Amino acid sequence: MAEIPRGRGRGAVILEALRKAQQQQQLAEAPAVEPREESVAPKPVVPKGRASLLRQKLSELKQTAPVGEPSTLQTPAEIATITKGVEETVINEPCLFRGESGTTVNASCNYIKLRTERDGGVFEYHVLFKPDMDAKSIRTRFVSTHLGKIKLFDGGSTLYLPIKLPDTRTEYICNHPQDNSEVTMIITFVKLKQLSECIHLFNVLLKKIMHALLLTRIGRNYYDPKHTHLVPQHKLEVLPGYAVAVDEFEGGAMICLDTQHRVMRTENVMDFLTNVKLTCKQQGNFVSVARQALLGTTILTKYNNKTYQIDEIQWDETPQSSFETRDKRKISYVEYYKKQYNIDIKNLSQPLLLNKKTKKTAQSEEVDQFISLVPELCYMTGLTDEMRSDFKVMKDVAMYTRVTPNQRLRALRAFLDNVENTPEAKEILSNWGLHIENATVDLLARVLAPETILFGGGVKGTTNNADWNSLICKNKVLGPVDLIRWYLFFTSRDEKFASTFAATMTRLGDVMGMRIAQPKMEKLADDRTDTYANMIQKVANTEAQLLVFICPSIREDRYSVIKRLCCADLPIPTQVILSRTLANPSKVRGITHKIGLQINCKLGGTLWALRFPVKNWMICGIDVYHSPGVKQSVCAFVSSLNDDITRWYSTVVFQDKELGDQHKTAFVKALERYKQLNGVFPSNVVIFRDGVGDGQLKYCKNYEVAQFQQCLSDYSISNVKLTMIVVQKRINTRLFLNKGAEFDNPAPGTVTDSKITRRNWYDFFLVAQHVRQGTVTPTHYVVVHDDANLKPDHVQKLTYKLCHLYYNWPGTIRVPAPCQYAHKCAYLVGQYIKREPSAKLADALYYL
């Protein structure tokens, strides 16, 4: 297979530009009568960077210039012009990262092309006043008077117009509003801006279009409050809306348009506080419960359709309290809402909610702004944890939020028709010479071949729907670990469940290929947290392999104590099971089998594997967990330990932000552990970095990659090839399989790496998982660094293979397994353990 060429480097482009300049100079100096024979070109020098290349080539050109005549490239202005032209050439060339493996299929996506009409676009002009005018308001008035309202002018020297003026240089005579003196305004044409240079402007225009369509902005997206779907049995309503953004891609400037839904509660915060007060017997308990439930949540004020975050509850303030307005007047909240919104506040004794926003002033100083809100005017947004765990609630909400590919595309076409049929929205586009195509972008995608799954006993299995649940239930695991010494803790009410679980586990041992002995049964006197802690300390020195707890209910304090003691203080693998999970006799066997597989992983075993045609590679995954209200974040670093990519080493570090500087510590531990087990350092390191947005890609490339390179340099490991891939799963891109008149979700293994990929990055989209309901969301992968020069096919196949190795699910998942392991590890440590786990558990997946 021929290797796909990548984007041309700056050095190569500069070299070519300078060669052309030299050839033109030689042709100009040639005699007119007889052409001169071409001299043999010197051997090209390997570029060492733009500056050194320019110096070297300029020196060569000066030497070849005729005696007595200056070189055609000797002035700084000319050098700057050529360099600028070269840079523009480099920027305009898209980065190609296209593979060839797999079966080609027709696909579509939720991208819409944005085009400029003939003779239209964004024209840049320079504005000059004689005499000079310092007041921005007067400068803006002059521009508006002579050039109309359709413009973009910030009061400085740059003006953007949707049309080109007849003359390159135009003068207007204006009269100063104060002394009526004559002022000359000179408008000079600079250039026609490319679409890639107008992305911000297009996004601003899109916001105006959304307002013209009477859509309301809530958060980042726009919703239609007039067409809500009520779910009255759960006091909920679902708002339909859109997520829209313009960006430049490999196929040009496009609009990414996706349908969105926002779940709102029909009860306001005052109703919620009343219900909490009724359930709390003590007043002090009510205050703490209310603060715990409300702080950090997002609420919506329907009188202005804005969202706020609750940062505090002001118990000593009421709607009758007064505040100071901008004009230094005192007014009560009751009077304010009556005057501004004609709203009568009913409950005059309710506390107020406080929202804090940090804004930057004109001097770039951060200033805290506080806003007090009335609870009865604030409506709760989103679902609580209790609602999410209620199957009936989620099923009823999913009727409106789970949209099939056909329904999603119909909604997108309805939006485009709405724009076309709304004169105000159409005028906004036509004023700037823009046109939105009335169809989504079609593209070619590829479906990678299904992978072969390897089980114990040499059994192999292949599945087309990326699900091997039936195979794992029938076959033995690949790397079994015998479970001989283990404890089972339970309360008296769950004694029956405990006996059934222990008997089922021992029977399923042969099925899984494990030898499982009878556990030591430990009945707890009560369900208090101290009781669990005391029992853990009691058996800590008995060389137990595993501790299993059957708990009667969900309690975070109990779970935190168990995990903190058994993961940090007294390192023992643990398994916590809710008694209601074992309550259904018909499902006990299947549930126990899944728990047994999870236990095997926590003991250091493996369940299945794939064939990897690589040797001495270390695959890593990074993810960061941010705990609400806690300054430090938890970064988990998970790395492979063997060539089969089935054993993992996990490290946790604490840092102050998403992009931290603590990766060196974790990377060093991973390298040392790899060499300890394999005798050598890895030849290739591939890192999948989760949690990095588009605005952080350059920072990640320049800052985090440098940390890993510094580690390799400190260890004097010069032959290790480093590849870093950013994983983005929170995206609005959707892919659809085009079946002609109908659309469906693409099959697992579908890859697209053209048209909708980033223009200046090596990236691709991959659908790894199988979705039975709704629309599948692909995962976006961006190769930010690659010393190994891996081919696109190799990166895409490796990524898809890794999506098969998450041992908590017998099927493919959205992201590579090391990223999901890092996510689980960071969440457990950040949410419950809150300290660094013991190194004795680092070789096992104790966080599953």
Automatic annotation (TrEMBL):
The lineage of its organism: Eukaryota, Metazoa, Ecdysozoa, Arthropoda, Hexapoda. Keywords: Cytoplasm, Developmental protein, Differentiation, RNA-binding, RNA-mediated gene silencing. It is found in: Cytoplasm. The keyword Nucleotidyltransferase does not apply. InterPro entries: PAZ_dom, PAZ_dom_sf, Piwi, RNaseH-like_sf, RNaseH_sf. The keyword Electron transport does not apply. One of its GO terms (biological process) is secondary piRNA processing. This is Argonaute 3.
